[in-house]
Amino acid sequence: MKRTLILPITALLAGLACGKHEPSESAPQLPPVRVRLTSAEAPGTSGWIAATLTATRKATLSTRMAASVKRVLASEGQHVAAGALLVSLADDDLQGGLKAAEAAVAAAEAHHRRIENLAMVNASTASELEMAATQLAQAQAALAGVKANLAYTQIRAPFAGVVQRRMVDEGAFVGPGQPLVELEGQGALELEGTLSESEAQGLRIGAKVPFEAEGRTGNAEITALSPGGDPVSHRGIVRARILGPAGSWRTGTFARIKVPGAARTEGLSVPTTALVTRGELTGVFVAREGKAELRWLSLGEARDGGVPVRAGLKAGESVIDNPGQLVDGQPIEVAK
Length: 336
Description:
The chain is α+β, with helices and mostly antiparallel strands. Among the domains are: 33-43 and 266-334, Beta Barrel (conserved putative lor/sdh protein from methanococcus maripaludis s2 fold); 58-90 and 153-184, CATH 2.40.50.100; 92-151, Orthogonal Bundle (Helix Hairpins). It is built from three helices and 23 strands. It has helices spanning 9-17, 92-120, 126-151; strands at residues 33-39, 47-55, 58-61, 67-72, 79-80, 85-89, 154-156, 161-166, 173-174, 181-185, 189-195, 208-213, 216-226, 236-242, 254-259, 268-271, 276-278, 281-288, 291-296, 298-299, 306-311, 318-321, 332-334. The protein has a six-stranded antiparallel barrel. The protein has a four-stranded antiparallel beta sheet with strand order 3-10-8-5, with no helix packed on it. Strand 20 and strand 21 (306-311) form a beta hairpin. The longest helix is centred in the first third of the chain and has 29 residues, at 92-120. The radius of gyration is 39 Å and the shape is elongated.
């Protein structure tokens, strides 16, 4: 028969009191730190949108024929004149068709002349003359079609420019519509970027806007504006032609266009000196009830010593400038 030993609760408490567990030490109190505050303010009336420098004239050349590549005369970075031959495709079968079409035209012309001479002496009917003219026209149309197809085997530059990319080699087989060469025109350059409907407010075609690229600034004139055109991003296209000489700029360079409506989409901004980075996170210390509160933020692109805040901060909150080695929850004393 099992026996159960029941101890009074007071004995259990006494046993715990006599145990060897030491009371935990209290966390050390952080000393107060004297700090200087700054405010999260609304940015100026203008902001920046990303853009890319591109040539105003650019083309991706292809062919409508299926053939093998006979010769490639273009290379990246090569300056070519308008009409210069860039790629030549095999055309042996078309050359045979050309000779046959030329022979058919010659025969139709001779037949038409004979019928015309007979008609002059009333030795042929009007219907025979009409049939001969029709046959001549058909032969000439067939010859024109063969010549047009031959033209698609000779890929030429539609304008003077620079070869940006060559996408085929000699001996390769290409099909209709396959890109062969990318060409950019020389001379005028433009900026191409995207913007939202609010960013497009205050802009119009013909307006002058400043931009910066490669550490330099310039001015451009808006030539195309279509806000909110993309059904997914709801952002439209803006194009602006660079004013002044374009020789000092390179296509493909990242640039920024200053537009009046861009700042309204950025909300608040904080100085870069107030930012705190921990790994891949960036935030600020906010002064709250005498303590420093670490707040992680979603930020935009830094500009002129400030960074736009997309999320994580409210207007009117005081941010600690130059936080140094501050710790979240540490007491602070505001310096006047």
